[in-house]
Amino acid sequence: MKVLSHFFALLHYLSIYVVSVPTPSNDVDINPYPTKPRLTFRQDGTFKITVFSDQHYGENPWDWWGPEQDANSTRLMKRVLPDEKPDYVVLNGDLITGENAFKENATLLVEEVVAPLNELKIPFSTTQGNHDNQVNITHLAEIKREQLIAPLSYTRIAPPGVGGDPEQGPGNYWVPIYASKASRSPSLILWFFDSRGGFAPANSTNTSDPVEVEDWVHESVAQWIEDEVALMDKAWGPSEENRAALAFVHIPP
Ligand SMILES: *[C@@H]1O[C@H](CO)[C@@H](O)[C@H](O)[C@H]1NC(C)=O
Ligand SMILES: *[C@@H]1O[C@H](CO)[C@@H](O)[C@H](O)[C@H]1NC(C)=O
Ligand SMILES: *[C@@H]1O[C@H](CO)[C@@H](O)[C@H](O)[C@H]1NC(C)=O
Ligand SMILES: *[C@@H]1O[C@H](CO)[C@@H](O)[C@H](O)[C@H]1NC(C)=O
Ligand SMILES: *[C@@H]1O[C@H](CO)[C@@H](O)[C@H](O)[C@H]1NC(C)=O
Questions:
Q1: Which ligand is nearest to the CA of 104?
Q2: Which of 66, 74, 190, 210 has its CA 20 to 30 A from that of 221?
Q3: Does residue 103 line the site of ligand 3, with CB under 6 A?
Q4: Is any atom of ligand 1 closer than 6 Å to the C-beta of 7?
Q5: What distance in angstroms lies between residue 82's CA and the mean position of ligand 2's atoms?
Q6: What is the CA radius of gyration of the chain?
Q7: Is it the case that residue 120 has pLDDT exceeding 60?
Q8: Angle at which helices 108-120 and 139-149 pack, to 10 degrees?
């Protein structure tokens, strides 16, 4: 049943259409991706996001069904993506079954998960889930690997002090979407929050037991959102009139 439920979790992909709103231009550019392609709405005013969640790569690598399930997931992505032709893809957490991962090669699984996106050159980003924080893998390790091997990854790491433990909760960031290549300010902000969860390796000499990590977004993120929005408002005008927002998080509040 576990095999099937995970396979169907992947099948449960979702498309979101957002309608663009006109934007005023401004001289200050706080776009955090100066070297990456600017993400824009289509000419017809739509922006299509395809979401995959709970892919759980690397489950039971010592059984036949784990690797076969991963091959099936990759096959599904390679079938869905050319069909949907999304403008952006979100992998919304539990990319890896961390509790079945090996320390020496756990992040290789990240390469496997994002391979279809690299191949088809689709911009994307990820959130991490409770299964991505385990003894042999952390959210930070996954994000660093992704940034290294995926040229069109827009995943970023929160500034120091934001998100709780920097290993288990760093995936808080935002991605601006512009009306057109020429727009000075974005009309949509995609927000990504790290809901932590899972386990951290034992951090006390008294025990070898892994430590459970709180499975919600760390309170420091609230102030960070306010600070970021204040920056955006200053650069691009008040949010209410100028920008829509859409948020992604693995474990919702
Ligand atoms: C992989 O996909 C094939 C064809 O759809 C299916 O028969 C098989 O059960 C799947 N394997 C797993 C482990 O889900
Ligand atoms: C972590 O990786 C090590 C080294 O491969 C392995 O021996 C150990 O069983 C793994 N631990 C867990 C909890 O999976
Ligand atoms: C990692 O190493 C283990 C143990 O040697 C192996 O079973 C597994 O397939 C490897 N995983 C990857 C992604 O290379
Ligand atoms: C161990 O980690 C937990 C969870 O991150 C933390 O609350 C606790 O303070 C840590 N304990 C020590 C001794 O570092
Ligand atoms: C370790 O155990 C000792 C003795 O039970 C206790 O006094 C101490 O507070 C423990 N330390 C931690 C970090 O849990």
A1: 2
A2: 210
A3: no
A4: yes
A5: 37
A6: 19
A7: yes
A8: 40
